[in-house]
Amino acid sequence: xxxxxxxxxxxxxxxxxxxxxxxxxxxxxxxxxxxxxxxxxxxxxxxxxxxxxxxxxxxxxxxxxxxxxxxxxxxxxxxxxxxxxxxxxxxxxxxxxxxxxxxxxxxxxxxxxxxxxxxxxxxxxxxxxxxxxxxxxxxxxxxxxxxxxxxxxxxxxxxxxxxxxxxxxxxxxxxxxxxxxxxxxxxxxxxxxx
Amino acid sequence: xxxxxxxxxxxxxxxxxxxxxxxxxxxxxxxxxxxxxxxxxxxxxxxxxxxxxxxxxxxxxxxxxxxxxxxxxxxxxxxxxxxxxxxxxxxxxxxxxxxxxxxxxxxxxxxxxxxxxxxxxxxxxxxxxxxxxxxxxxxxxxxxxxxxxxxxxxxxxxxxxxxxxxxxxxxxxxxxxxxxxxxxxxxxxxxxxxxxxxxxxxxxxxxxxxxxxxxxxxxxxxxxxxxxxxxxxxxxxxxxxxxxxxxxxxxxxxxxxxxxxxxxxxxxxxxxxxxxxxxxxxxxxxxxxxxxxxxxxxxxxxxxxxxxxxxxxxxxxxxxxxxxxxxxxxxxxxxxxxxxxxxxxxxxxxxxxxxxxxxxxxxxxxxxxxxxxxxxxxxxxxxxxxxxxxxxxxxxxxxxxxxxxxxxxxxxxxxxxxxxxxxxxxxxxxxxxxxxxxxxxxxxxxxxxxxxxxxxxx
Lengths: 194, 458
What we know:
The complex is a heterodimer.
Chain A: H1 5-20, H2 25-30, E1 34-38, E2 46-48, E3 54-56, H3 57-61, E4 67-72, H4 79-93, E5 102-107, H5 115-124, E6 131-134, H6 138-147, E7 161-165, E8 172-176, H7 181-192
Parallel strand pairs in A: 4-5, 5-6
Antiparallel strand pairs in A: 1-8, 2-3, 4-7, 7-8
Chain B: H1 22-31, H2 51-63, E1 76-84, H3 89-116, H4 120-128, E2 136-144, H5 151-161, E3 166-168, H6 177-186, E4 190-191, E5 207-208, H7 214-227, E6 237-242, H8 245-260, E7 267-271, H9 279-289, E8 293-297, H10 304-307, E9 319-323, H11 324-327, E10 342-346, H12 351-362, H13 377-396, H14 402-410, E11 437-441, E12 449-451
Parallel strand pairs in B: 1-2, 1-3, 3-4, 4-5, 6-7, 6-8, 8-9, 9-10
Antiparallel strand pairs in B: 10-11, 11-12
Helix pairs in contact in B: 3-13, 5-6, 7-8, 13-14
């Protein structure tokens, strides 16, 4: 679904107010996730995607297309399905236009998440092309998590995090907490606004 | 929550809600409003289920945890461990001693608190904190005799006499499938049996294995070869498989994985159980087939057959792969001049890495174990079981449901243990160690093992 430009700007304006103005307690309770803008140095590692292909993380992320990164694992039954529902809803809303967004999930269970497990996971969520799931060696995955200030020493202490890379300037919007699809879409629009 | 970010402050606990009826549960699942009028968090999906689907879901939910699983009564929580008679006592005695010690220590702690702590509030507190088990634990030995085909009826007989809550540990030198199948049909958890022949299944539920055993070595060999840049896409493999339990399991692990990569089938030669792989036969096979890699799942291939591949007149393949599990220490007999092309699957921590960790694992609080060289493989295999069991009993508290036990274990944190680099768990994951190194031998008469891969290869 395309959103008319004037609506988009209005939305961005409202959101900017909500996010930038010091929130009153009543407003703070409305937004249940934490938003910040960060800069990260993407490490030069080669990971493996759901097709078993080697991919260089830097080339995948340093892109003119907005990129969203999250950390999940293939057999997770707690917050990953919620995060992934967010991804799939975003793909639906954007008609899975891969020029509009590139979705990346990075495993936090690299021992178990083989390409086969990741492929089945994406299939289960009816992921469309443009959503890649990456695994790799434990050392490389740890390096990636650390680079995004998202180090999770054990997948059972997992927390919900989405990182949106703004194509302009390459800063990242860090969204900590679970979001509704509407909130996620708004954050995407805000981060990608020209 | 996370290290870097603090979540929002937790809200006040909601007012107690009336118990769900079929109608109010259906309404809540569909509309997201519970009987007290509280609106569910938006991240909980609203399920637009038809009446008949909803009825199935509710009837399933009602069946959960409606009564305790078998194997527990007001006083005792019963476990058993299975030992098969193909083994000599030295192969399982230490395992049994360690399990007995664990049961005894837990019971002593429980007794102590029951008898010594007078204040009921303190006692309750200690119970809630999981310092003690809520029942006395018991452990029976289920000794299985004769051929594996006869084990099922022996197991049924033991179980009929004394239903247990779960099987823990256990050792067999031959098959494990009869025990696995018995556990599946009785919905009986079986935790970390010590077997090299686990049942490989993506859907079976009740047995949690330390690893996939020999199958995992075969799988790793295929993953390694698939990632070798110098192995051509249409490269030819000669696979030599001994028709023994070990050989077949290694063969299947390799074949299944290789197929899943969409690669051409290996040219497979079977060696009958009584046969010996002679140097002449191997040399002839290599000469006629001209393979890019030779995968040898045979424990008679060393020292003669493999070493003779460097004899004049034979063009050796680029790669030879063998299993350390199957060859045992025989792989140390590889000649110097063939070590560069020979790759060995090694499904455990390397000895030098493990050495560094022994004091760490067994030094601080030895559980009947001493620091030093004397720690047997059996003790190392038993260690993760005790860790997992300790935690599971603590978290299970008084909820004696087998599925809950498995659920707790599957949500457990990864384990750093002496034998494996990492044991990891997760819903539905049934093989805790996922790794296996590919190593080569260094030079000299007491060669080092040199890692040629990560612990896990994808």
